[in-house]
Write a structure and sequence with these properties.
The strands form 2 sheets. Strands 1-2-3-4-7-9-10-11 form an 8-stranded parallel barrel, surrounded by 6 helices. The chain has a 3-stranded antiparallel β-sheet with strand order 6-5-8, with no helix packed on it. The protein is globular and about 45 Å long. The protein has one domain: TIM Barrel (Alpha-Beta Barrel), CATH 3.20.20. By secondary structure, it is an alpha/beta fold. The protein has 9 helices and 11 strands. It holds the Pfam family BtpA. Belongs to the BtpA family.
Length: 275
């Protein structure tokens, strides 16, 4: 918990805004708009800065269909590095910035974070294997933390999804959510992320309560947080990651809706003042 607090501070329930960058060069939906993609990422960073979001994370979510990490080309890493640097240059120095490279590009994300002086990454498949949209994914904690040490990126926090969305966990059905979180904790995660079944779907109260107060690392909500349900997560979560709710029509594929962002931040400020 101390590693988290040293970067994010003591304030309750940090709001981490998601920047879903455009489809990158080489992926099926790339539209030949590389310079515009940079400007769009910078624009979204300016909006998050304006409305004083606590942190931001950059993700290549438009690169569907995803491939496993061994198939991620150098163009993905180089483009995500360029976009991350653009966002980092806009956000205030004290605002933590992170990156996620899907699918399971955890080493790639660490390298980007190191190069761009980002503070954290979001990692998939940290402990236990599972079957995701893109195929079977094995656990990576041992290899990933050794790589972090190897590139001298110990100051980059690794937040890890458990029983992650868009995946089948039948092969670990006999391992509870709490046992999975405790395994990730034992394997030195810097934070636990729980999600709903898919992007934009809320994490269940049952899942949150199963973990609340039982971990030594931060508990984070990674999908489905809205203005309407933030109060139910607020007492238990140290941070929430929000993408879809900040977009027009609550659709992750759309642009950021500044009014939705502004309204949510007013709500969280009121909630903080009331507690």
């Amino acid at each position: 918990m101390q590693r988290f607090l040293s970067i994010f501070g003591e304030q309750k329930c940090k709001i981490i805004g998601m920047i879903h960058v455009d489809a990158l060069p080489g992926t099926p939906r790339y539209a030949g708009n590389w310079q515009q993609s940079i400007e769009k990422a910078k624009h979204e960073a300016e909006l998050y800065k304006k409305h004083k979001v606590d942190a931001v994370i950059i993700e290549n979510m438009h690169d569907i269909p995803y491939v496993q990490d061994r198939l991620l080309g150098p163009e993905i890493v180089s483009c995500m590095t360029r976009l991350s640097q653009a966002v980092r240059s806009i956000m205030p120095r004290q605002t933590p910035c992170g990156v996620q490279v899907v699918a399971c590009g955890n080493k790639q994300a660490l390298a980007i974070a190191k190069a761009c002086q980002l503070q954290f990454i979001r990692a998939e498949s940290f402990v236990f294997g599972h079957v995701a949209d893109e195929g079977y994914t094995d656990a990576c904690a041992g290899d990933l933390l050794r790589y972090r040490k190897h590139i001298d990126a110990q100051n980059v926090l690794i937040f890890t999804d458990i029983k992650k969305k868009h995946s089948s966990h039948a092969i670990t059905a006999d391992v509870s959510l709490l046992e999975t979180a405790q395994a990730a904790e034992f394997f030195l995660t810097d934070g636990i992320i729980v999600t709903g079944a898919a992007t934009g779907k809320a994490a269940s109260d049952k899942d949150v309560q199963e973990l609340s107060g039982k971990l030594k690392v931060p508990l984070m909500i990674g999908s489905g947080v809205t203005k309407e349900n933030i109060s139910q997560y607020y007492p238990d979560a140290q941070a929430v990651i929000i993408g879809s709710h900040f977009k027009h029509d609550g659709n992750w594929e759309q642009d950021i809706d500044e009014l939705a962002l502004q309204s949510f931040m007013h709500s969280i400020c009121a909630l903080r003042e009331a507690t």
